[in-house]
Amino acid sequence: MINGLIIKSFYSLAKGSNGSSVFVLAETSTGCLLGDSAVGSPKVRPRESGEAAADGLLTSIESGACADRWLQDQLILYMALAEGTSRVRTGPLTLHTETAIDIARKFTGAKFEVRDGGEEDGSKVIECQGIGLREAKGAN
């Protein structure tokens, strides 16, 4: 445990493979799970892969995010379809997230606003006024 975080790491080297992978996971004192990963190759030392995964995890932790870079884009569609206002704090936005917001706006008409998280850490708050999708009457 580091500063209230439970840190776990998983490392694998596939038998007969020249590559490796590492996954790091942190659980905050509020139960939030943040993770990151990196893949190694014959040209990348396992230590470098581990450092890359740890750096990504630290970016999420230091930003105060409740959604890491792998989750943030996955939440956009649910925010767009939900009723009312949804908000999520993330680290720096990924290109996938920016694209998901653009597509969700175009397909659903949901209103999105992205603002700085109030810190110098690159954090963002994504806010969405969802469309409140409901099941069509008579749909089976």
What does this structure look like?
It is a single chain. The protein is an alpha+beta fold and 140 residues long. It folds into 2 domains: 6-63; 72-131, no CATH class. It is built from 3 helices and 6 strands; from the N terminus they run βββααβαββ. The chain has helices at residues 46-63, 72-81, 95-108, and strands at 6-12, 20-27, 33-40, 83-90, 111-116, 124-131. The strands form 2 sheets. It has a 3-stranded antiparallel β-sheet, covered by helices on one side. Strands 4-6-5 form a 3-stranded antiparallel β-sheet, with helices on one face. A hairpin with a 5-residue loop joins strand 2 and strand 3 (33-40). The longest helix is centred in the middle third of the chain and has 18 residues, at 46-63. The radius of gyration is 18 Å and the shape is elongated. The mean pLDDT is 86.
Quick recap:
The chain has 140 residues and is α+β, with helices and mostly antiparallel strands.
Give the helix/strand layout.
Elements: E1 6-12, E2 20-27, E3 33-40, H1 46-63, H2 72-81, E4 83-90, H3 95-108, E5 111-116, E6 124-131
Antiparallel strand pairs: 1-2, 2-3, 4-6, 5-6
Helix pairs in contact: 2-3
